[in-house]
Amino acid sequence: MRETLAAIRPLDTDAMAAARALHARLTKPAGSLGTLEELSVRLAGLAGTCPPPLPGPAAVGVFAGDHGVHAQGVTPWPQEVTAQMVTNILAGGAVINAFARQVGARVTVVDVGVAGPPAGATPGPAGGAAAEPAPAGPIGAGPPGDAPELVQARVRAGTRDMTVEPALTRDEVVAAVAVGIDTADRLVDAGAGLLVTGDMGIANTTPAAALVAAFTGADPLDVTGRGTGIDDGTYERKVAVVRAALARHAPDPADPVGVLAAVGGLEHAALAGFVLAGAARRVPVLVDGVIAAAGALAAAALAPDARGAMVAGHRSAEPGATVALRHLGLTPLLDLGMRLGEGSGAMLAVPVVAAAVRVLHEVATFDSAGVSSK
Ligand SMILES: O=C(O)c1ccc[n+]([C@@H]2O[C@H](COP(=O)([O-])O)[C@@H](O)[C@H]2O)c1
Ligand SMILES: Cc1cc2nc[nH]c2cc1C
């Protein structure tokens, strides 16, 4: 972790100035591409060159973990669904697989903290869904024919119940962050040019809410959502659980490892590492929903310059996501009312990120196209 943190540097302001100057010469009214313009400028700053390389191929790391706080009745879903969905993703039958095939992205599932027997690659009933995948979409830069892969890197079989004791030890947090770093490093070494954050973990919107509250100072009521979908009684209990955990541990946002240990999850910690390694490697990282955003808050607390590599893929319906993205100064690219996780919302933003950069490579200037400027 220390090496990764030390490698994170600010954005290159010269490359950003060059990208802004280039935008001013392209055949379009200034500012007409809205959020995409500042995004492409930021990616030039991240790459340290203008235009920056087309961001791809994309690779999603889906970090899976379970949660002791599940015992408090914060979700209607049984814990074993986490392991079952890991199997489903490995068989190619989950939403993230369909979306990854659409954009030609690689899928890597990382068991960083699932409860129960270690996840295997045995296809479940949904295995047939992957038998004849639709062809990859127009980006096609990834390996659409490649099967999803499993990385077995379990730090422990689920967290402890944060309402009773710290969810993790500091050593467990550091180990989970290292799993995220290793995953990102491996994907980048294998050619990934755009990292996508994904998660799977029944009950993980509860620690996500606690992390967002701890890092932003927001009230639990404003960052706790309905997760997979809960009734009013469960929602009230969930807010009370988040409040109780924060009151018990009083986590200090200046100590990100301590915050993750008190009220975090293994996938949140691993996602923080994944984001940090992307920033260290100068590869953009698409942030998905509230779980990834909570991990991104931890990453930013560890290394503020890591924010330069973060791109908010979408605005999750979970309220903590909006609070976290605002705190990070990120504008979500898509707003589709999604609240699935797995990296699904961020994956849909892959073509948007690629298009933002493609403009800098391919659009004619007023001079070269003979178009009059105003
Ligand atoms: O990404 C999001 O913002 C998001 C919002 C709501 C639910 N989820 C997913 O749903 C699961 C957690 O929901 P819950 O209600 O069990 O806390 C977990 O697997 C997440 O990936 C994800
Ligand atoms: C079925 C199911 C799929 C999911 N994918 C991400 N979180 C999930 C939660 C459930 C319950």
Automatic annotation (TrEMBL):
Keyword Transferase assigned: yes
Region annotation Disordered: where it falls in the sequence: 121-148
Pathway it works in: Nucleoside biosynthesis; alpha-ribazole biosynthesis; alpha-ribazole from 5,6-dimethylbenzimidazole: step 1/2
Single GO molecular function: nicotinate-nucleotide-dimethylbenzimidazole phosphoribosyltransferase activity
Catalytic reactions of this protein: 5,6-dimethylbenzimidazole + nicotinate beta-D-ribonucleotide = alpha-ribazole 5'-phosphate + nicotinate + H(+)
E.C. code: 2.4.2.21
Keywords tagged on the record: Cobalamin biosynthesis, Glycosyltransferase, Transferase
Biased composition (Low complexity): 121-138
Enzyme class label: transferase
Pfam families assigned: DBI_PRT
UniProt similarity note: Belongs to the CobT family.
Name of the protein this chain belongs to: Nicotinate-nucleotide--dimethylbenzimidazole phosphoribosyltransferase
